[in-house]
Design a protein that fits this description.
The chain is mainly α. The chain folds into 2 domains: 165 residues, no CATH class; 197 residues. The chain is 59% helix and 1% strand. It has 20 helices and 2 strands. β1 and β2 form a beta hairpin. α9 runs antiparallel to α10, α15 packs across α17 and α18 runs antiparallel to α19. The radius of gyration is 20 Å and the shape is globular.
């Protein structure tokens, strides 16, 4: 079975949630409810130096471990440390190139790629003396953007107390370099959520509260994505007290309406873990959740299908077939995961080419929601859609990218 960390999809929302809204117009949108959070708080401030047997990336310290050493010690921890050291010694460009290459040939590296990337991002912040913008600018989105998450995790390592975390969170993603594309900016704000959870010792209500203090609704919502991802699928093997073995959907039904979106977009990672990846049972669970969030749950199922199959379009299509009558929602989640994982859209477009005609428009729309964040200029977004989508579905892709129809 693949590492559960490999099953996570970065949902790159379009500006002001516009792109997501375009897609949801077909699938059934959601509105924000009253602010506030149910649950308990008061967990110990400050994450421990080790979690689940692994060193916290936020406390990364270089040593003399090299990749060659991992040939005889093929553990996750060895590769995490060795790649972090490579960032410090040879810089991000060389380290990321080696990482991308090893992901294709080394099963240990591939299976632990997100956590390795966390360590590499953390090491980059050490190399650049805490300069978040520079570390982000020289990074890459390899393996669901673990590099960016590690930077933010490291940035919180020396905050000290919870009372300081809010002001730190509000300034970390303010640099112009980080905001040059929406995709990069999203990774930063999303990464805040990861960092807040790890820093606080997995105090979910507190982390959500800090997200709520960010500047815009978009920032706040994007931050909660990192919170719920870390809660369900810990970077360090920690079992959060905000999950329950006898209630796979918890805490989604208990959180406030404004926090439900990302909770349900992540929820099937937990459902699948508990039922042994029985896709029909997972689909049945999605059909039983709060009615306004059934569609979102099936998008989560599609994201998991992408990760579980190692991003294999024919196998994804087969899994989504079990999602009736929400097949299009499953496919929508899957193509967004494919496009996000690759930071391109070729494999996502291949999945769209395999599905029935009645699903194709929404499928290409999903690709567009990711392409719209990867490129800064409208012309670049249109060119990407033209490259990937057949003429009949090009405008669906363009709409997903948040652009008006071509004249």
């Amino acid at each position: 079975m693949r590492s559960r960390r490999r099953l996570i999809f970065i949902v790159a929302l379009a500006a002001g949630l516009v792109g997501y809204g375009v897609a949801e117009a077909t699938l059934g949108g959601h509105s924000s409810g009253n602010p506030g959070e149910t649950g308990h708080s008061g967990h110990t401030a400050g994450a421990p130096a080790t979690l689940g047997g692994h060193p916290v990336a936020g406390h990364f310290k270089p040593d003399d471990t090299k990749l060659a050493d991992c040939a005889s010690d093929a553990t996750n921890a060895c590769y995490e440390q060795a790649f972090g050291n490579l960032v410090i010694l040879q810089g991000p460009k060389t380290a990321l190139a080696e990482f991308a290459s090893d992901m294709q040939t080394n099963e240990t590296v591939q299976g632990d790629c997100h956590r390795i990337a966390h360590m590499m991002g953390s090491a980059a912040l050490v190399r650049f003396n805490g300069d978040v913008s520079k570390a982000f600018a020289l990074g890459a989105s390899t393996c669901w953007s673990g590099w960016y998450h590690g930077i933010l995790e490291r940035a919180f390592a020396d905050v000290g107390t919870k009372s300081n975390a809010g002001s730190v969170a509000r300034r970390l993603c303010s640099g112009e370099t980080i905001q040059r594309t929406q995709y990069l900016y999203y990774q930063c704000v999303h990464g805040l959520g990861h960092g807040l959870m790890i820093f606080s010792g997995y105090d979910l209500p507190w982390a959500l509260g800090v997200c709520d203090e960010l500047k815009t609704d978009w920032d706040q919502t994007s931050c909660t994505g990192g919170v719920f991802m870390e809660n369900i699928s810990s970077s360090y093997g920690v079992k959060s007290r905000w999950v329950k073995d006898d209630d796979p959907v918890y805490p989604c039904e208990t959180v406030s309406e404004k926090h439900k979106l990302y909770c349900y977009l992540m929820v099937t990672s937990r459902v699948n873990e508990l039922n042994g990846y029985n896709w029909r049972k997972t689909a049945a669970t999605c059909r039983s959740v709060e009615k306004d969030w059934v569609v979102t749950c099936f998008e989560s199922l599609g994201r998991d299908a992408s990760g579980f199959t190692r991003e294999d379009p024919p196998k994804i299509a087969q899994i989504c077939a079990a999602a009736k009558p929400y097949i299009v929602s499953c496919l929508y989640g899957a193509v967004r995961d494919l496009a996000s994982f690759d930071s391109r859209g070729e494999r996502a477009a291949r999945l769209c080419s395999l599905v029935a005609s009645r699903f194709k428009a929404q499928c290409y729309n999903g690709i567009g929601t990711i392409l719209g964040t990867l490129y800064a200029q409208p012309a670049q977004k249109r060119a990407a859609c033209k490259r990937l989508a057949p003429k009949a579905y090009r405008e669906s892709c363009v709409a997903g990218a948040g652009l008006a129809p071509s004249v």
